[in-house]
Amino acid sequence: MYLITNGKVITRDRENPYFENGAVAVDGSKIIEVGDAPALKLKYPGAEIIDAEGNVIMPAFINAHTHIYSALARGLSINGYNPTNFYEILDGMWWAIDRRLDLEGTRASAYATYIECIKNGVTTIFDHHASYGCVPGSLFEIADVAKEMGIRSCLCYEVSDRDGEEKCSQAIKENYDFIKYTKDEPNNMLKAMFGMHALFTISDKTMEKCVEANNGMTGFHIHVSEGTNDVEDTWMKYGKRPVERLLDSGILGEKTLLGHCIHVNDEEMNIIKETGTMVVNNPESNMGNAVGCAPVINLFHRGITVGLGTDAYTHDMLESLKVALTIQRHNAKMPNVGWAEATGMLFDNNPKICAKYFDEPLGVLKAGAAADIIIMDYKPYTPFSDANIDGHIIYGMNGRQCLTTIANGRVLMKNRELIGIDEEKINADITETAKKLWKSING
Question: Are 167 and 154 in contact (CB under 8 A)?
Answer without folding.
Answer: no
